[in-house]
Design goal:
The chain is mostly beta strands. The protein has one domain: Thrombin, subunit H (Beta Barrel). About 10% of the residues lie in helices and about 45% in strands. The protein has one helix and seven strands. The chain has a six-stranded antiparallel β-barrel. The longest helix is centred in the last third of the chain and has 14 residues.
């Protein structure tokens, strides 16, 4: 398991009020639900673990339309995976590897609209 330390993280992740669905764009399968997000990555919750070190083409389904879009598309590498406090779930950390400027703006708006202030 790769290090998941917040010391290695480039910017602070924001917890979301709404656990948005995250899909694999290649096959349409649900990867999990986004629990927190930042400009450089996100953490998802799901029932089972996934392979770390793998690049995924992901789509985050938005709770409301932002910038005339219902989703945010990006590529990310799975960096770590571990059991959640609730042993029925895993949490997986992803690092964003490719995202365009329009989708970056939508992440900022998502954080403002659905993120906890901390």
């Amino acid at each position: 398991m790769a290090k998941e330390s917040s010391v290695l993280r480039k910017d602070k992740r924001r917890h979301l009020h709404y656990y948005a669905k995250v899909l694999n764009r290649d096959n349409g399968e649900i990867v999990g639900r986004a629990a927190d997000i930042s400009m450089t990555g996100l953490m998802i919750v799901r029932v089972d673990s996934i392979e770390t070190g793998k690049t995924y083409a992901l789509r985050l389904l938005l709770p409301e339309v932002i910038e005339k879009s219902a989703s945010i598309d990006f590529e990310a590498v799975s960096r770590w995976s571990k059991k959640e406090f609730n042993p029925d779930f895993h949490v997986i950390g992803f690092e964003t590897t490719h995202i365009d400027s329009t989708n970056e703006k939508m992440i900022i708006q998502l954080i403002k609209a659905c993120g906890f202030d901390d």
